[in-house]
């Protein structure tokens, strides 16, 4: 059982050689890139910036990181993207540590968990890495800046404005939300109610129904809404699952084109419904702009133009000038409206 | 039978070992894994930028610590031809218990001990189902994998408890003063020595190999198979509980889905380290080298900018190669032995007619 022969040694050494070769090859190729990163910054600022999304292979982050890459190319930094295969709370830690070991200038993170990666981020900051969160924040004391895609007020207002425009600012509307205790959605719905009461007195919100972010439930709830309220003129669905299920129902029903639908959706889910006329316009932020802004904010931090305190301003290329708000948050702006004219520019 | 044994002992006329001592120690699967680890470290030091920083050692050992810890009892369990798939769920459950009890105002050390005891109880449940009820451990621990994870997620929902006494969370993260080696390595080394002595230098440890090779023969030789396995599952639960407390402190985060999938990392490293999934074979130094090999390779490749998918592919290929090479070489050897047997058979039958 414990004896060994020459053939076993041979097998082992072949395995060893193979692993060594794999490591050497990848090490060499990537080593070249790393060197370029540290010596590229002629203005002695280390503009090697690493994007760390929640997980790789996610179209949303592919879009946002492409925006970041565009920005980094514009100002002559080095772009890298790393990330875990699955979005679990602690899976990002090793990548944060790797960035700290590599001594990158900045790290742009969308956090899977507000707390679990905190210590790793702070260790990276101690090692001189500027940390910017985007899309999904950590606790404020673990990062230098947070790039916020939209405020609750902005999201609520843009949806109310869209539905008001589509139904002629008068008539019955309903809301198809996620689950009854979804924090984000409930906050938005409260703000929408206030906005409707204050600025759109002729629009009546008849009911809020909950599709639990489940495709089939949302589909059934849409059907029920339309039967209960024959005079219904519009539906707002502030959740990507809800809006696509509602659009699927409307597109094959007699209500297509008669009942307006808007809310928060992604272009890939909504493309066919925008093209067939079920949906005129819907809102979401533009992830490419979000990544672009995050990259410029990281550059400003690395070059010492800003420190992340309230009132700092920095230049963000084609997006213009931005100002740091309270709690070191930078707001991207109002949600982006997708319609038949621009939807083909997006793939996420 | 035993009283007359000293008188009937005969002088052995054949050598105790077929090969000299150096060959038996150096040319083993364990040594091959250690050699591969050394090769990987040497190549990484030479070609991967930033691999030589002390941060590498700190991060590597800190993140590997839960796997290293759980690999110790897992080795013993796999040597007896059983398996414990519920270890990661026990880590999740004890992590949640640590969080809930700390939040309820318990002193942290008391909460931690209570959480470890929860791990022990989880091990008792596994052990009871495997040894007393007599179910196969694969089925039992797939069940408890779901059960413990379900309880953990059910207790906390999607929320996380993140507030832990700074003294303890710093202690979990701090290095041994003056070195880049994280402090968690002290309890690990102590446990590793205890497990190594237990496995390799006690009758209990030797009985594990006997059970793994042939359960019935072990039972007839006086080994209490049931009790032995029961103890191993309890050990596994307890160590997983300790790893759960450490995991919680390391990330300052008690969540139901902590350490999801960790059991596969542990088992992969144990098998890479030369433990046979069919039981009866393996040694702890190989397992420790196996964990370090997978970890170091991942760390070096990540530093070299290789994406996580490719790292998974490389680790996967390495594992398959190690398993395949072991079976292939075993097959070669059995062929050679049977060839020798045939040759001897021919010569003796040829000699008879004369």
Automatic annotation (TrEMBL), chain A:
Report one GO cellular component.
outer membrane-bounded periplasmic space
The biological process GO terms on file are: rhamnose transmembrane transport
Question: Which residues does UniProt assign to the signal peptide?
Answer: 1-24
Question: In which compartments does the protein localize?
Answer: Cell envelope
Where the record annotates domain Periplasmic binding protein, the positions are: 49-304
Q: Name one Pfam family in it.
A: Peripla_BP_4
Keyword list, A-Z: Signal
Recorded coiled-coil stretches: none
In the record, what terms sit under GO molecular function? carbohydrate binding
> PANTHER family from the entry?
ABC-TYPE SUGAR TRANSPORT SYSTEM PERIPLASMIC COMPONENT-LIKE PROTEIN, D-XYLOSE-BINDING PERIPLASMIC PROTEIN
Q: What is this protein called?
A: Rhamnose ABC transporter substrate-binding protein
Gene source species:
Agromyces tardus
UniProtKB/TrEMBL annotation, chain B:
Q: Which GO terms describe its molecular function?
A: transmembrane transporter activity
Topology with regard to the membrane? Multi-pass membrane protein
Instruction: Supply the alphabetized keyword list.
Output: Cell inner membrane, Cell membrane, Membrane, Transmembrane, Transmembrane helix, Transport
Q: What is its main location?
A: membrane
Which compartments is it annotated to reside in?
Cell membrane
Question: Pfam families, from UniProt?
Answer: BPD_transp_2
Transmembrane region(s): 31-51, 57-78, 85-106, 112-135, 142-161, 181-201, 230-249, 261-279, 286-304, 310-332
Q: What is the protein name for this chain?
A: Autoinducer 2 import system permease protein LsrD
């Amino acid at each position: 059982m414990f004896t060994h022969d020459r053939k076993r040694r041979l097998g082992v050494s072949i395995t060893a050689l193979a692993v060594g070769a794999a490591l050497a090859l990848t090490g060499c190729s990537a080593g070249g890139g790393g060197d370029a990163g540290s010596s590229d910054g002629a203005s002695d600022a280390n503009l090697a910036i690493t994007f760390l999304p929640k997980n790789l292979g996610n179209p949303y982050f592919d879009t946002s990181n492409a925006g970041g890459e565009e920005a980094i190319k514009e100002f002559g930094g080095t772009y890298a993207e790393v990330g875990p295969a699955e979005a679990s709370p602690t899976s990002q830690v090793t990548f944060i540590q790797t960035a700290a070991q590599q001594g990158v200038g900045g790290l742009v993170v969308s956090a899977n968990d507000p707390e679990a990666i905190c210590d790793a981020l702070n260790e990276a900051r101690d090692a001189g890495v500027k940390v910017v969160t985007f899309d999904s924040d950590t606790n404020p004391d673990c990062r230098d800046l947070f790039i916020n895609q939209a405020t609750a007020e902005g999201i609520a207002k843009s949806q109310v404005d869209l539905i008001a425009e589509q139904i002629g600012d008068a008539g019955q509307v309903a809301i198809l939300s996620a689950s009854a205790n979804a924090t984000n959605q409930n906050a938005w719905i409260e703000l929408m109610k206030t906005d409707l009461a204050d600025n759109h007195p002729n629009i009546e919100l008849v009911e809020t129904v909950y599709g639990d972010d489940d495709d089939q439930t949302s589909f059934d709830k849409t059907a029920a809404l339309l039967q209960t309220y024959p005079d219904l003129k519009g539906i707002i669905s502030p959740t990507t699952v809800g809006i696509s299920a509602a659009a699927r129902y409307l597109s094959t029903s007699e209500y297509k084109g008669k009942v307006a639908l808007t809310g928060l959706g992604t272009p890939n889910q909504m493309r066919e419904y925008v093209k067939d006329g079920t949906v005129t316009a819907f809102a979401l932020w533009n992830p490419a702009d979000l990544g672009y802004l995050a990259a410029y904010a990281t550059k400003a931090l690395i070059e010492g133009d800003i420190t992340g305190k309230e009132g700092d301003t920095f230049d963000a290329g084609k997006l213009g000038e931005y100002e740091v708000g309270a709690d070191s948050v930078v707001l991207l702006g109002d949600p982006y409206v997708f319609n038949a004219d621009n939807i083909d520019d997006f793939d996420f | 039978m035993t009283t007359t044994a000293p008188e009937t002992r005969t002088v052995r006329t054949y050598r105790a070992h077929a090969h000299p001592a150096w060959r038996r120690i150096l040319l083993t699967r364990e040594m091959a894994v250690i050699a591969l680890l050394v090769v990987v470290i040497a190549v990484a030091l030479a070609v991967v930028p930033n691999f030589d920083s002390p941060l590498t050692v700190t991060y590597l050992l800190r993140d590997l610590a839960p796997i290293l810890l759980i690999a110790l009892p897992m080795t013993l369990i796999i040597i007896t031809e059983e398996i414990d798939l519920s270890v990661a769920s026990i880590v999740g459950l004890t992590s949640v218990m640590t969080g809930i009890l700390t939040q309820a105002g318990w002193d942290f050390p008391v909460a931690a001990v209570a959480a470890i005891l929860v791990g022990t109880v989880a091990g008792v449940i596994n052990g009871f189902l495997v040894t007393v009820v007599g179910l196969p451990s694969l089925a039992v621990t797939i069940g408890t994998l779901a059960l413990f994870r379900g309880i953990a997620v059910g207790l906390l929902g999607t929320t996380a408890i993140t507030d832990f006494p700074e003294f303890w969370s710093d202690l979990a993260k701090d290095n041994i003063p003056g070195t880049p080696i994280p402090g968690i390595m002290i309890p690990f080394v102590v446990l590793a020595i205890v497990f190594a002595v237990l496995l390799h230098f006690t009758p209990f440890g030797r009985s594990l190999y006997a059970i793994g090779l042939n359960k019935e023969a072990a039972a007839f030789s006086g080994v209490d198979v049931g009790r032995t396995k029961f103890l191993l599952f309890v050990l596994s639960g307890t160590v997983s509980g300790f790893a759960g407390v450490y995991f919680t402190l390391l990330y300052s985060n008690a969540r139901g889905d902590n350490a999801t999938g960790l059991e596969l990392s542990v088992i992969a490293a144990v098998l890479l380290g030369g433990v046979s999934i069919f039981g009866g074979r393996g040694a702890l130094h190989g397992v420790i080298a196996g964990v370090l090999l997978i970890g170091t390779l991942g760390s070096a490749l990540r530093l070299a900018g290789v994406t996580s998918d490719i790292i998974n592919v490389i680790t996967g290929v390495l594992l398959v190669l190690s398993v395949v090479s072991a079976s292939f070489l075993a097959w070669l050897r059995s062929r050679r032995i049977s060839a020798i047997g045939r040759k001897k058979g021919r010569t003796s039958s040829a000699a008879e007619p004369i």
